[in-house]
């Protein structure tokens, strides 16, 4: 179960790690499985649209059951398909790395996290760090479960 306490633990871990890495101000959004915000924080100095961007990364992950970076690659291969998915989610997907699914030990999806503010690679590192710090799993942690968990892009 994705509780408010665990949602906040994800955010706190990400923001702390971002400060340790001396990154620009970050924004983190944790959503439930229905893409509704469970918790969010935007550090002082973040630009205006960061909440929407972070939530959009989480929405992209949930919409296709993969990381937002994976969704971006899927969009390149089939833009018509992804455009239709965008319609289903009211055009709220942001297909840039930094969004990851939150999974339990069995691979069940509990929600998603979106991070924005640093480079795409740093956002991806931070989102995985925060999920693991709260005791949850990422797709990369569960690759042994097979086809249900894709850990890399395969056209």
**Helix-strand category:** alpha+beta
Low-confidence stretches: none
Sketch the topology as an H/E string, one letter per element: HEEHHHEEH
CATH class: Alpha Beta
Helix content: 40-55%
CATH topology: Beta-Lactamase
CATH homologous superfamily grouping: Haem-degrading domain
Write down the domain tally.
1
Radius of gyration: 14 Å
Give the spatial strand order of the biggest sheet. Answer: 2-1-4-3
Number of helices: 5
The CATH architecture term is 2-Layer Sandwich
The overall average pLDDT, rounded, is 92
Query: How far apart are the first and last residues' alpha carbons, in Å?
Result: 32 Å
Task: Indicate the overall shape.
Answer: globular
Portion in beta strands: 15-25%
What's this entry about, in short?
This protein is an alpha+beta fold and 155 residues long. It contains five helices and four strands. It has helices spanning 4-20, 50-64, 68-77, 79-88, 120-133, and strands at 27-32, 37-42, 99-103, 109-116.
How would you describe the overall organization of this protein?
With 155 residues, the protein is of the alpha+beta class. It has a single domain (4-139), classed as 2-Layer Sandwich (Beta-Lactamase). Helix content is 43%, strand content 16%. A four-stranded antiparallel β-sheet has the order 2-1-4-3. A hairpin with a 5-residue loop joins strand 3 (99-103) and strand 4 (109-116). Helix 1 (4-20) crosses helix 5, helix 2 (50-64) crosses helix 3 and helix 3 (68-77) crosses helix 4. The longest helix has 17 residues, at 4-20. The mean pLDDT is 92.
